[in-house]
Specification:
The protein is an alpha/beta fold. The chain is built from 14 helices and 13 strands. The structure holds pyridoxal-5'-phosphate (PLP).
Length: 356
Protein backbone atom coordinates (compact mmCIF):
# COMPACT_ATOMS: atom_id res chain seq x y z
CA UNK A 1 0.00 0.00 0.00
CA UNK A 2 1.63 3.29 -1.04
CA UNK A 3 2.20 5.77 1.77
CA UNK A 4 1.07 9.37 1.34
CA UNK A 5 4.59 10.36 0.26
CA UNK A 6 4.72 7.91 -2.63
CA UNK A 7 3.26 8.31 -6.09
CA UNK A 8 0.57 5.93 -7.25
CA UNK A 9 2.09 2.99 -9.11
CA UNK A 10 0.65 1.38 -12.24
CA UNK A 11 -0.95 -2.06 -11.95
CA UNK A 12 2.24 -3.48 -13.47
CA UNK A 13 5.26 -1.25 -13.94
CA UNK A 14 7.69 -2.64 -16.49
CA UNK A 15 9.09 0.79 -17.33
CA UNK A 16 12.54 0.14 -15.87
CA UNK A 17 14.38 -1.61 -13.04
CA UNK A 18 15.13 1.90 -11.75
CA UNK A 19 11.61 2.42 -10.40
CA UNK A 20 11.83 0.08 -7.41
CA UNK A 21 11.08 1.44 -3.96
CA UNK A 22 13.19 0.45 -0.97
CA UNK A 23 11.65 -2.46 0.94
CA UNK A 24 10.61 -2.07 4.59
CA UNK A 25 13.71 -4.05 5.63
CA UNK A 26 15.97 -1.82 3.53
CA UNK A 27 14.39 1.32 5.00
CA UNK A 28 14.86 -0.01 8.54
CA UNK A 29 18.51 -0.71 7.76
CA UNK A 30 18.94 2.80 6.28
CA UNK A 31 17.33 4.38 9.34
CA UNK A 32 19.96 3.03 11.68
CA UNK A 33 22.98 3.52 9.42
CA UNK A 34 26.01 5.09 11.11
CA UNK A 35 26.78 8.41 9.42
CA UNK A 36 29.62 10.91 9.02
CA UNK A 37 31.08 13.37 6.51
CA UNK A 38 31.55 11.52 3.23
CA UNK A 39 33.85 14.18 1.69
CA UNK A 40 36.24 13.67 4.56
CA UNK A 41 36.09 9.88 4.28
CA UNK A 42 34.33 9.79 7.67
CA UNK A 43 31.01 8.17 6.76
CA UNK A 44 31.20 4.57 8.05
CA UNK A 45 28.33 3.38 5.84
CA UNK A 46 29.88 4.81 2.68
CA UNK A 47 33.22 3.31 3.67
CA UNK A 48 31.59 -0.07 4.22
CA UNK A 49 29.92 0.14 0.80
CA UNK A 50 33.07 1.16 -1.09
CA UNK A 51 35.02 -1.59 0.68
CA UNK A 52 32.36 -4.17 -0.15
CA UNK A 53 32.28 -3.22 -3.83
CA UNK A 54 36.07 -3.08 -4.16
CA UNK A 55 36.22 -6.59 -2.69
CA UNK A 56 33.43 -7.93 -4.90
CA UNK A 57 35.15 -6.55 -8.00
CA UNK A 58 38.65 -7.36 -6.73
CA UNK A 59 39.78 -3.76 -7.27
CA UNK A 60 42.03 -1.71 -5.00
CA UNK A 61 39.46 0.99 -4.31
CA UNK A 62 36.01 2.39 -5.13
CA UNK A 63 34.19 5.70 -4.88
CA UNK A 64 30.46 6.21 -4.21
CA UNK A 65 28.69 8.55 -6.65
CA UNK A 66 25.12 9.85 -6.93
CA UNK A 67 24.41 8.22 -10.29
CA UNK A 68 25.62 5.77 -12.87
CA UNK A 69 25.88 8.52 -15.44
CA UNK A 70 28.33 10.34 -13.18
CA UNK A 71 30.34 7.12 -12.81
CA UNK A 72 30.68 6.76 -16.59
CA UNK A 73 31.41 10.44 -17.16
CA UNK A 74 34.01 10.63 -14.39
CA UNK A 75 35.71 7.52 -15.75
CA UNK A 76 35.92 9.21 -19.15
CA UNK A 77 37.24 12.44 -17.61
CA UNK A 78 39.99 10.53 -15.81
CA UNK A 79 40.99 8.28 -18.70
CA UNK A 80 40.96 10.73 -21.63
CA UNK A 81 42.40 13.92 -23.09
CA UNK A 82 40.34 16.36 -25.23
CA UNK A 83 40.28 15.21 -28.85
CA UNK A 84 40.44 11.51 -27.95
CA UNK A 85 38.09 8.96 -29.45
CA UNK A 86 36.48 6.20 -27.41
CA UNK A 87 34.94 3.02 -28.85
CA UNK A 88 31.67 1.51 -27.63
CA UNK A 89 28.73 -0.37 -29.09
CA UNK A 90 26.38 1.92 -31.04
CA UNK A 91 23.60 1.18 -28.54
CA UNK A 92 25.72 2.24 -25.53
CA UNK A 93 24.24 4.33 -22.73
CA UNK A 94 27.22 6.65 -22.84
CA UNK A 95 26.43 7.47 -26.50
CA UNK A 96 22.64 7.64 -26.37
CA UNK A 97 21.51 8.61 -22.88
CA UNK A 98 24.12 10.88 -21.31
CA UNK A 99 23.21 14.08 -23.19
CA UNK A 100 26.51 14.25 -25.07
CA UNK A 101 28.42 14.18 -21.79
CA UNK A 102 31.64 12.78 -23.27
CA UNK A 103 31.85 15.73 -25.71
CA UNK A 104 30.56 18.36 -23.30
CA UNK A 105 32.52 17.34 -20.22
CA UNK A 106 35.69 15.69 -21.53
CA UNK A 107 35.96 16.90 -25.13
CA UNK A 108 35.96 13.38 -26.57
CA UNK A 109 33.96 11.57 -29.23
CA UNK A 110 32.53 8.10 -28.74
CA UNK A 111 32.32 6.02 -31.92
CA UNK A 112 29.56 3.43 -31.99
CA UNK A 113 30.39 -0.02 -33.36
CA UNK A 114 27.58 -2.02 -35.02
CA UNK A 115 27.43 -4.99 -32.68
CA UNK A 116 24.66 -7.58 -32.44
CA UNK A 117 22.26 -6.82 -29.56
CA UNK A 118 24.87 -4.56 -27.99
CA UNK A 119 27.86 -6.88 -28.28
CA UNK A 120 30.58 -6.32 -30.89
CA UNK A 121 33.23 -8.83 -31.92
CA UNK A 122 37.01 -8.79 -31.48
CA UNK A 123 37.31 -8.43 -35.29
CA UNK A 124 35.04 -5.37 -35.35
CA UNK A 125 36.96 -3.88 -32.47
CA UNK A 126 40.42 -4.57 -33.89
CA UNK A 127 39.37 -3.02 -37.22
CA UNK A 128 38.05 0.10 -35.48
CA UNK A 129 41.20 0.98 -33.49
CA UNK A 130 42.89 3.77 -35.44
CA UNK A 131 46.56 3.73 -36.31
CA UNK A 132 48.42 6.67 -34.80
CA UNK A 133 48.18 9.57 -37.24
CA UNK A 134 48.67 13.34 -37.24
CA UNK A 135 45.14 13.71 -38.69
CA UNK A 136 42.95 11.20 -36.93
CA UNK A 137 41.63 11.35 -33.39
CA UNK A 138 43.60 9.16 -31.00
CA UNK A 139 41.64 6.00 -30.16
CA UNK A 140 42.20 6.04 -26.44
CA UNK A 141 39.88 3.50 -24.83
CA UNK A 142 36.89 1.19 -24.96
CA UNK A 143 33.67 0.89 -22.99
CA UNK A 144 31.83 -2.43 -22.60
CA UNK A 145 28.25 -2.29 -21.28
CA UNK A 146 27.45 -5.34 -19.14
CA UNK A 147 24.61 -6.19 -19.67
CA UNK A 148 23.70 -4.26 -22.79
CA UNK A 149 20.59 -2.25 -21.97
CA UNK A 150 19.44 -1.20 -25.44
CA UNK A 151 20.68 -4.52 -26.80
CA UNK A 152 17.98 -6.20 -24.68
CA UNK A 153 19.84 -7.22 -21.52
CA UNK A 154 22.43 -9.19 -23.49
CA UNK A 155 25.37 -10.62 -21.55
CA UNK A 156 28.86 -9.94 -22.89
CA UNK A 157 30.40 -13.44 -22.87
CA UNK A 158 33.55 -13.65 -20.75
CA UNK A 159 35.58 -14.83 -23.77
CA UNK A 160 34.56 -11.81 -25.83
CA UNK A 161 35.37 -9.51 -22.91
CA UNK A 162 38.82 -11.12 -22.61
CA UNK A 163 39.49 -10.90 -26.37
CA UNK A 164 38.40 -7.28 -26.79
CA UNK A 165 40.24 -6.04 -23.71
CA UNK A 166 43.41 -7.90 -24.62
CA UNK A 167 43.41 -6.24 -28.06
CA UNK A 168 42.84 -2.93 -26.25
CA UNK A 169 45.87 -3.53 -24.05
CA UNK A 170 48.02 -4.44 -27.08
CA UNK A 171 47.21 -0.97 -28.44
CA UNK A 172 47.79 0.77 -25.11
CA UNK A 173 44.07 1.62 -24.69
CA UNK A 174 42.31 1.94 -21.34
CA UNK A 175 39.23 -0.21 -20.67
CA UNK A 176 36.05 0.66 -18.77
CA UNK A 177 33.05 -1.49 -17.96
CA UNK A 178 29.65 0.16 -17.65
CA UNK A 179 28.40 -2.51 -15.27
CA UNK A 180 25.03 -0.92 -14.57
CA UNK A 181 23.68 -4.49 -14.67
CA UNK A 182 26.85 -6.45 -13.98
CA UNK A 183 25.15 -8.40 -11.19
CA UNK A 184 22.41 -9.47 -13.60
CA UNK A 185 25.09 -10.78 -15.96
CA UNK A 186 26.84 -12.51 -13.11
CA UNK A 187 23.75 -14.22 -11.67
CA UNK A 188 22.58 -15.34 -15.12
CA UNK A 189 25.97 -16.62 -16.31
CA UNK A 190 27.39 -17.92 -13.04
CA UNK A 191 30.57 -15.87 -13.71
CA UNK A 192 31.71 -13.92 -10.62
CA UNK A 193 31.62 -10.10 -10.95
CA UNK A 194 35.39 -10.00 -10.31
CA UNK A 195 36.01 -12.40 -13.19
CA UNK A 196 34.50 -9.86 -15.59
CA UNK A 197 35.99 -6.88 -13.73
CA UNK A 198 39.59 -8.13 -13.85
CA UNK A 199 39.70 -7.32 -17.57
CA UNK A 200 38.99 -3.63 -17.02
CA UNK A 201 40.93 -0.65 -15.66
CA UNK A 202 37.74 0.82 -14.26
CA UNK A 203 34.31 -0.60 -13.48
CA UNK A 204 31.02 1.06 -12.61
CA UNK A 205 28.22 -0.82 -10.87
CA UNK A 206 24.78 0.61 -10.19
CA UNK A 207 22.78 0.23 -6.98
CA UNK A 208 19.53 1.74 -8.20
CA UNK A 209 18.70 -0.79 -10.94
CA UNK A 210 18.05 -4.48 -10.30
CA UNK A 211 19.56 -4.29 -6.83
CA UNK A 212 16.64 -2.15 -5.73
CA UNK A 213 18.46 0.60 -3.80
CA UNK A 214 17.10 4.12 -4.31
CA UNK A 215 20.25 6.01 -5.31
CA UNK A 216 23.81 5.68 -6.43
CA UNK A 217 26.60 3.90 -8.24
CA UNK A 218 30.19 2.99 -7.53
CA UNK A 219 33.27 3.46 -9.65
CA UNK A 220 36.14 1.09 -8.91
CA UNK A 221 39.75 0.72 -10.04
CA UNK A 222 43.28 1.19 -8.78
CA UNK A 223 43.92 3.48 -5.80
CA UNK A 224 45.47 6.00 -8.19
CA UNK A 225 42.45 5.91 -10.53
CA UNK A 226 39.99 6.36 -7.66
CA UNK A 227 42.04 9.25 -6.27
CA UNK A 228 41.82 10.96 -9.68
CA UNK A 229 38.08 10.17 -9.82
CA UNK A 230 37.64 11.80 -6.39
CA UNK A 231 39.14 15.04 -7.70
CA UNK A 232 36.58 15.13 -10.56
CA UNK A 233 33.76 14.16 -8.17
CA UNK A 234 34.67 17.10 -5.97
CA UNK A 235 34.91 19.47 -8.96
CA UNK A 236 31.56 18.42 -10.41
CA UNK A 237 29.74 18.69 -7.11
CA UNK A 238 29.32 14.97 -6.54
CA UNK A 239 31.04 14.93 -3.16
CA UNK A 240 28.44 14.44 -0.44
CA UNK A 241 28.06 14.73 3.35
CA UNK A 242 26.06 12.21 5.43
CA UNK A 243 25.64 9.99 2.38
CA UNK A 244 25.51 6.86 4.51
CA UNK A 245 21.72 7.27 4.55
CA UNK A 246 21.68 6.17 0.91
CA UNK A 247 24.92 4.15 0.85
CA UNK A 248 23.50 1.83 3.54
CA UNK A 249 20.71 0.89 1.12
CA UNK A 250 23.46 -0.29 -1.22
CA UNK A 251 25.07 -2.34 1.54
CA UNK A 252 21.69 -3.93 2.26
CA UNK A 253 21.05 -4.57 -1.45
CA UNK A 254 24.41 -6.24 -1.99
CA UNK A 255 23.76 -8.53 0.96
CA UNK A 256 20.15 -9.41 0.17
CA UNK A 257 19.19 -8.58 -3.42
CA UNK A 258 21.84 -10.13 -5.65
CA UNK A 259 20.81 -13.80 -5.77
CA UNK A 260 17.15 -12.90 -6.22
CA UNK A 261 17.96 -11.34 -9.62
CA UNK A 262 17.41 -14.90 -10.92
CA UNK A 263 13.68 -14.36 -10.20
CA UNK A 264 13.66 -11.27 -12.45
CA UNK A 265 15.35 -13.25 -15.21
CA UNK A 266 12.79 -16.05 -14.97
CA UNK A 267 9.97 -13.47 -15.00
CA UNK A 268 11.42 -11.79 -18.11
CA UNK A 269 11.57 -15.14 -19.87
CA UNK A 270 7.95 -15.94 -18.92
CA UNK A 271 6.86 -12.49 -20.07
CA UNK A 272 8.57 -12.92 -23.44
CA UNK A 273 6.94 -16.32 -23.90
CA UNK A 274 3.57 -14.78 -23.12
CA UNK A 275 4.10 -11.95 -25.59
CA UNK A 276 5.23 -14.36 -28.31
CA UNK A 277 1.64 -15.50 -28.83
CA UNK A 278 0.22 -12.02 -29.49
CA UNK A 279 -0.66 -11.21 -33.14
CA UNK A 280 1.26 -8.17 -34.41
CA UNK A 281 3.89 -8.36 -31.66
CA UNK A 282 7.36 -9.67 -32.57
CA UNK A 283 9.54 -10.93 -29.75
CA UNK A 284 12.36 -13.45 -29.54
CA UNK A 285 12.22 -15.20 -26.16
CA UNK A 286 15.50 -17.01 -26.88
CA UNK A 287 17.25 -13.63 -26.81
CA UNK A 288 16.04 -12.83 -23.30
CA UNK A 289 19.13 -13.51 -21.19
CA UNK A 290 18.44 -11.36 -18.13
CA UNK A 291 15.68 -8.94 -17.02
CA UNK A 292 15.01 -6.98 -20.23
CA UNK A 293 12.51 -7.86 -22.96
CA UNK A 294 12.52 -5.92 -26.24
CA UNK A 295 9.59 -6.38 -28.60
CA UNK A 296 8.44 -4.87 -31.86
CA UNK A 297 4.89 -3.63 -32.30
CA UNK A 298 5.12 -2.55 -35.96
CA UNK A 299 2.84 -5.43 -36.91
CA UNK A 300 -0.04 -3.89 -34.94
CA UNK A 301 -0.02 -0.73 -37.08
CA UNK A 302 0.79 1.38 -34.01
CA UNK A 303 3.94 3.32 -33.28
CA UNK A 304 5.74 2.34 -30.10
CA UNK A 305 4.85 5.74 -28.62
CA UNK A 306 1.14 5.19 -29.22
CA UNK A 307 1.36 1.56 -28.11
CA UNK A 308 3.03 2.58 -24.86
CA UNK A 309 0.55 5.38 -24.28
CA UNK A 310 -2.50 3.13 -24.77
CA UNK A 311 -1.09 0.31 -22.64
CA UNK A 312 -0.54 2.76 -19.81
CA UNK A 313 -3.65 4.95 -20.15
CA UNK A 314 -6.13 2.19 -20.94
CA UNK A 315 -4.73 -0.82 -19.06
CA UNK A 316 -2.52 0.70 -16.34
CA UNK A 317 0.56 -1.24 -17.45
CA UNK A 318 3.67 0.84 -18.09
CA UNK A 319 6.42 -0.04 -20.57
CA UNK A 320 9.04 2.17 -22.19
CA UNK A 321 9.41 3.31 -25.78
CA UNK A 322 12.79 2.32 -27.19
CA UNK A 323 12.49 3.03 -30.91
CA UNK A 324 9.89 3.89 -33.58
CA UNK A 325 8.24 0.48 -33.13
CA UNK A 326 10.34 -0.99 -30.31
CA UNK A 327 9.12 -1.35 -26.73
CA UNK A 328 11.19 -2.34 -23.71
CA UNK A 329 9.75 -4.16 -20.69
CA UNK A 330 11.96 -4.68 -17.64
CA UNK A 331 11.37 -7.01 -14.71
CA UNK A 332 12.60 -6.09 -11.22
CA UNK A 333 12.09 -6.37 -7.48
CA UNK A 334 8.62 -4.82 -7.63
CA UNK A 335 7.25 -7.14 -10.33
CA UNK A 336 5.85 -10.51 -9.26
CA UNK A 337 5.18 -13.62 -11.35
CA UNK A 338 1.46 -13.16 -10.56
CA UNK A 339 1.50 -9.81 -12.37
CA UNK A 340 2.85 -11.21 -15.61
CA UNK A 341 -0.48 -12.50 -17.02
CA UNK A 342 -1.96 -9.02 -16.36
CA UNK A 343 0.85 -7.42 -18.36
CA UNK A 344 0.49 -9.92 -21.21
CA UNK A 345 -3.25 -9.33 -21.34
CA UNK A 346 -2.81 -5.55 -21.37
CA UNK A 347 -0.31 -5.76 -24.20
CA UNK A 348 -2.54 -8.17 -26.13
CA UNK A 349 -5.48 -5.76 -25.81
CA UNK A 350 -3.41 -2.82 -26.99
CA UNK A 351 -2.17 -4.90 -29.92
CA UNK A 352 -5.77 -5.81 -30.80
CA UNK A 353 -6.70 -2.10 -30.76
CA UNK A 354 -4.20 -1.39 -33.55
CA UNK A 355 -4.99 -0.74 -37.20
CA UNK A 356 -3.46 -3.94 -38.48
C1 LIG B 1 23.70 0.68 -19.16
C2 LIG B 1 23.49 1.89 -18.31
N1 LIG B 1 24.54 2.65 -17.98
C3 LIG B 1 24.41 3.75 -17.21
C4 LIG B 1 23.19 4.13 -16.74
C5 LIG B 1 23.09 5.39 -15.91
O1 LIG B 1 22.68 5.15 -14.62
P1 LIG B 1 21.94 6.30 -13.76
O2 LIG B 1 20.51 6.29 -14.19
O3 LIG B 1 22.17 5.85 -12.35
O4 LIG B 1 22.61 7.59 -14.07
C6 LIG B 1 22.06 3.38 -17.07
C7 LIG B 1 20.71 3.81 -16.58
O5 LIG B 1 19.70 3.48 -17.12
C8 LIG B 1 22.21 2.24 -17.88
O6 LIG B 1 21.15 1.49 -18.24
Amino acid sequence: MPTSTEVKRPLVDLYSDTITLPTAEMRAFMAKAPLGDEQKGEDPSVNELTGLVATLLDKESAVFLPSGTMCNEIALAVHTRPGDEVLADATAHVINFETGGPAALSGVTVRGLPGVRGVFTREQFAAAVRLPSRYAPRTSGVIVEQTSNAGGGTIWPLDTVAEVTSIAREHGLWTHMDGARLFNASVASGVRPAAYARHFDSVFVDLSKGLGAPVGGLLAGTREFVEAAWRVKQRWGGAMRQAGVIASAGVYALRHHVDRLAVDHENARLLAEGLAGIPGVAVEPEHVETNIVLFDVGGTGLTAAEFGRRTHAEHDVRVSVFGPTTIRAVTHLDVTAEQLPLAVEAIARTAASGTR
